[in-house]
Amino acid sequence: MPTMTTAEGVVESLIRHGLTTVFALPGIHNDPLFDAMFRASDRLRVIHPRHEQAAGYMALGAALATGKPQAFSTVPGPGFLNASAALLMAYSMDAPVLGLIGQIPQSQIDRAHGHLHEIHDQLGLARHFTKFAARIRAPHEGPGLVTEALHQALSDRQRPAVLECAWDMWGRTGPVEFPQMPRPRSVPPLDEDAIEQAAKILGAAERPLILLGGGAMDAAPEVAALAELLEAPASAYRRGHGILPASHRLNVTLPIAHRLWKDADAVVGIGTRLLFQHDMWGVDDKMKIVRIDIDPEEPERFRQPAAAIVGDAAPALRALVNRLVRHNRKRASRADELAGHRAWADAGFAKLEPQLSFVRAIRAALPDNGILVDEVTQVGFMARLAYAAEKPRTFISPGYQDNLGWGYGTALGVKAARPDAPVVSIAGDGGFLYQAGELATAVQHKLPVVAVVFDNGAFGNVRLIQQENFGGRLIASDLHNPDFVKLAESFGMAAFRAKTAPELQAALTRALKLDAPALIHVPCGDMPSPWAFIRMPKVRG
After folding, report:
1. Computed over its alpha carbons, how large is the radius of gyration of the chain?
2. Does some domain include residue 299?
3. For the chain, which residues score pLDDT lower than 50?
4. Whole-prediction pTM value?
5. Bridge-based pairing state of the strands 97-103 and 70-74
């Protein structure tokens, strides 16, 4: 067995597991870890942002864009807490993110002596929003715990993991053994009876409907096969866009799915919680719901489904399609029906200007492999309704945490992991300033993300709610902003200003051709509320 420091064993283990980048901020607690990463710099890239929250978000973005595990590192206490929002989002979005977190001296942990960055029960806190959390206590434990953490993060329902290590243990030397790796990902076995039951239900349905979530991200061909076999419209809201291409004849937007929900006799939820549907749209005994989810706790969370297939979406759908052939009834084309629904939706969306035109301008400038990272902004809400994604993992949306300010750092992580794809980040002026300092990171590390900042001088959604629901009593929603063009130029990047959708499309086309970090400032006023098309009323039950 080779003799290594704890840090060297951890770094070597990351590399052996295929990780090529760590997003990390240095600090005294982790000095030996950074020295080990320096020694491995020909095989492992370190990208250091300007804030720990960005380190976590960059790892999250890289994981969402690739489906592969990604790592970040921070000091303990405040550094860990700064990055914890990203871990919370990774947990809610089923992203395999690994946090390497420092600690105070090992013998002093949880003794309240007042060490630098001391926090009580850091691991216990981490366990609230990770799938696996452990402490590396000796050099020989490092590789095994890295292997276990990544195995846990990738297996069954994917979620983040955390490993912490005391600052006097990172540099400790000892014999190190590397386990066989990577360990095969574990997934639950498929239940043939459940597949048969689902096939009979769907085969007999007259008006089936498919709802897609992030858990179907790697099952695009299988989703298309099921939709076409059933002649079933398929819809996504935040994370399922692009699984069935927007141009596919059976792809429908969320408001159309709401319209179809009323008369659907069978629904397939694939890798989605179906929260909106159960919580707002309503269900009744006439609707047979089939759930496909890798987490055995999900199918019955709201109510007992008619059938539940627990397993990875792609193999589960392949088995279902194969079984469905013998049970499936003939159905007429729904082309004319869906054309009518699309005309209705287009007429409704036309009221949501200028955000609809901005979304279409962005889509026109981005190629099909381009990646859009959305934000908690009016244009982001519109994108979730109308952005025409053609491929999985090309529309990165924050899931149910919907964290304001997550977008730009996440987009930098997307670009670091997918240098082959154009990447655009959209944000409002409020959310963008959460991470405006990362403009420096984009320039320093040559990450050519184009940031589009829609500026209405307010936390726009908050102000809109205060205007409509609280008699116009505005509080804490107005903002004082910099000149965003000059701000971006001060960091050494190209910057543009666009006031209309055609100007935005032209500026974005020009910025993407630079293959360098850039910012586009879009001054805009108040925008009409999209919520009538998102939080839609009960139609069943």
Report:
1. 24
2. yes
3. none
4. 0.97
5. parallel
